[in-house]
Amino acid sequence: MIGKGFLFTSQDKCILLVGPHYKLKEMDFNRAAILEEVLSMRYSINQNKNTDNIKETEPDSIIKDGLNENLFVTKNKEKLQSVFVEIEGKELTLSVGNDTEKAMRYAIVAFKDWEQNKIINNQDVIYTTVPSGVRQIFDFNLPNVDNETNFQLLALPFPYEVSNENYISQQAFGSFRIVIQNKD
């Protein structure tokens, strides 16, 4: 499940997904929470990476409303309503939040049937730093598909800065999976 741009040369990582081929189509939040779970093991193998030159993607908007989920895909940026099934090409909203006391940098990647997929501005990886107590909003379109396909976003906090002292830097956050359906 490592794609172009996702292979950070300064990190060793292993990401495990529960039921990768299961397509959840009903509004079952218990099952969705289990499928959302991403088990990650991230280890730094090279601390010399200069992260100052990484180009970050500017959010479409910033919201300060206390709904600071790390990663959430919704149809409505104000309400954080879950999306489980949607038609290809549909515009959705990615909400990236931070409920910690310090700014948090993320690397965000998209997977379509567990192959890395381009996302906002045709990029393989989206980098953004979210200030404390806010969430950033990014509009994006679901990719086109030939048949029903799983789609999920992953956010890796503190890319290139994994350390034993910063537990969050070792984690990965997943969005709820979305089953993308073909228009036909």
List keywords for this structure.
single chain; 184 residues; mainly beta; Immunoglobulin-like; 7-stranded mixed beta sheet; 4-stranded antiparallel beta sheet; 1 helix; globular; disordered N terminus
Short account of what is shown:
Helices cover 4% and strands 39% of the residues. With 184 residues, it is mostly beta strands.
Number of alpha- plus pi-helical segments: 1
Element order: H for helix, E for strand? EHEEEEEEEEEEEE
In terms of per-residue confidence, which ranges show pLDDT below 50 for 5 or more consecutive residues? 1-13
Strand content: 35-45%
End-to-end gap: 28 Å
If you average the pLDDT, what whole number results?
Answer: 82
Radius of gyration: 16 Å
Q: Can you identify the CATH superfamily? A: Immunoglobulins
CATH topology: Immunoglobulin-like
Q: What top-tier CATH class fits best? A: Mainly Beta
**3D shape:** globular
Helix content: under 10%
Number of strands: 13
Profile the largest sheet. Answer: 7 strands, mixed
| Alpha-beta classification | mainly beta
Number of domains: 1
CATH architecture: Sandwich
Give a description of the structure.
With 184 residues, the chain is mainly beta. It has a single domain, classed as Immunoglobulin-like (Sandwich). A hairpin with a 2-residue loop joins β7 (104-112) and β8 (115-117). Helix content is 4%, strand content 39%.
